[in-house]
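Q: Hi! First time doing this. I have a protein sequence and I read that you can turn it into a structure. Is that right? Here it is:
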Amino acid sequence: MPTLPPRIPLAQLPTPLERLDRLTVDWGGPNLWVKRDDLTGFELSGNKVRKLEFHLAAAIADGADTVITCGAAQSNHCRATALAAARVGLRSVLVIRTADGNAVPLAGNHLLHHLAGTEIVTITPDAYRERDAVMQAVAVDQARLGHRAWVIPEGASDALGMWGFVLAMRELAEQFDAAGFTTPPTIWHAASSGGTTAGMAWAVDRLKLGTPIIASSVGDAAGDLVNRVDVIWDEALEAYGGRRPQAPLEVIDRYVGSGYGITSQDELRVQLEVTQSTGLLLDPTYSGKAFYGLHREIASGRWSSSDDVVFWHTGGGFAVFAHDFGGAFGRSVGDDA
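A: Yes, that's right. Below is the predicted 3D structure, encoded as structure tokens:
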């Protein structure tokens, strides 16, 4: 494994690996565990900060005073970028996708974007398909204003951000040893921009962990997500050399449901069941949708009671406060009856 690029320590690490004994009994399947990346910090909670440690170090080394990135209004990555940039003294510009390209209510992560003092550029879903070009155009505009910008791709998912999850898997491997596993557990995680998946599978290969990785897409077709992982690996191989990883990686899109950010009542009910059994907070777009998929796979009999499955909690607690859970309770949020 090559020498890692410079990084700025921002996350509270290591995050715990915890048993979910009550949920294991409730669901009657494998032994369930959770990797608590919702505890990487309060304002920086979630998996994205691991990638940002490398991107912000690179931005500062490049002499940038501004970072630019993109995502949806409730993007955990955008929230973490805005707050992490503020912490290290950088300006931030967020290219935010909204339904019609107009402003959206200040709630959840989007409220925190504004509290961090970031500049917001809203665009339509059609324009977002060309998000990399849009961000480059924003960088040019920033240069005209006298700023030097560092562009971070969606989710910080590239060959640089990937190293955050190479380190994360080293961390988890030590916790596996401490837990005394005789057979490598399966890791189940929410997948979107591909960087977390790419880093996990790269590390499984390079560290010879033998840990099966299952990436549960929260919005896109499995083939699109596989292509993103391949692109990240191509970038890493070009930059650092070596060979293409051969890891037990499975990418599925069976639990996308109605699409990114759209949550059914059945999905919400499962998410509430998890919270009421474990105390974990799940955001409906990412961790909640992925936990729903895990529930369905357990119900199908995929694993035996002697197997171990680790759910990698990618955070997203702030987005809970921007979602209407009323239907899951049989009423509208705000009703006192």
